[in-house]
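Notes from hallway chat w/ T.B., transcribed later so I don't forget. T.B. wanted the structure written out for a chain they're using in a teaching module, and asked if we could keep both sequence and structure tokens in one place. Agreed to drop them here.
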Amino acid sequence: MPSQQIEPHILIADDSRSARDFLKSQLTSLRPGIHEAENGIEAFEIASSRYLDLIITDVQMPGMDGLELCRKLKDDPATQGVPIIILSNMDTDQDISNGFDAGAVGYLAKADCKAELLQRVERTLERSALLRGRGVLVVDDSVSIRTAVARSLAQAGFRVIEADNGREALSRLASFQPDLILSDIHMPVMDGQHFCKAVRAMEQYQNTPFVVMSSSSDRRMLREMAEKGADAYLVKPFNVEEVVLLAEKLLSDHGMMLLQERYRLTRERTMLLSAIASLIQALEARDAYTRGHSESVASLSKSLAQYMGLRAEDVERIILAARLHDIGKIGIADSVLLKQGKLSDDEYECIREHPVKGTQILKPIPSMQSILDAVMYHHERMDGSGYPLGLKGTSIPLDARVVAVADVYDALTSNRPYRSAMKYEEAIGVIKKMRGAHLCPECVDAFLSMMKDGESGVPVRNNDKRGSSRKKTVVA
């Protein structure tokens, strides 16, 4: 797993300036944003007024000591989720126990700081990044147990929601998607067994960790709950810290598994895109007139999508779609694709097949599913005269409408076998005429404003070659 990427905000509370300076020197590799306090009162004020990833505190301080600071922070909903590490010269077993009882996640003797502090802080930040803000649903008909468990989980940094039976818990799932579920077995209305079975029947919760809390330690009951999908079992009475530790372990393991899977998919996607990029380069190498077209369309599409205020994930999807929008031309014979003279009707229809061919190439690849619409429909027209399906208006996906504008502009401003590149003013004039009938009005308006503001970031691309009199072909 990669190291912490975002610079963490860390509060150091110690009445000794030299001690604070030493601690800062030990953490420089993290490039943290450091906040300092000379006592517990000042530390609490800082923690209450800004976001913090971690608090490191001494115990013996004037005004408010470190243990009182811990307790006060854990009692305040605004700060109870911030992890706290105690550093102290007081390192007896009782001192350490007092620190954990106050709510600290770590306790380190000052004599060991030089050797262990950085590693301890990195581990705490890593775990906090995985767990902080993760949702837990606590289901129990005992108000006292439910409240105690929920409070301890909230102090550890979890978002917690409660329900007193299975049916109420199911209704809560409509507005709260937990990362972990803790449930009693014996409850009125709907017991834990039926609730667990109902949860596992929902596709989105099939892999969500489910922990059973019960006063029964009957082996048959344990087996039955395991068969229904329970991942762990806590026998009452238990220490609430056991619940927190189990929740942290389950979600850390689960989170690490998800992260590793995400990294694996990212690596595979990167390798796949590299392979596809090579195919695109091979495709464009066949035709000097369209060399660089896909990257140019991708760059224009990115600028246009950003100018339109689309979300970052939408922009990334459009960039990828634009890069691959012509991949179907790999399946078009050179005799058609590179023909200098007039295309026959059959040859023209062959070229019009490239959106479908491109979709067929990408469809078997799971990570490409989100871009299929743009690849398939980037030659549809607002008036329904486009291809391959003759879609009209807003039935054409927005991604395809964005790519279409970029595609047309790049085609107009680059040399093709059938004509020379247009000048900027000419191309803009054509784009304006295409507004409404051919191209999406919203996208065209944004494109024209963007080009006027000079925010496209893409220079006009003119190839050196000049074309002949080829007729009947697609704009791109």
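Follow-up for T.B.: Residues 85 and 106 are 5 Å apart (CA to CA). Might be a good example for the class.
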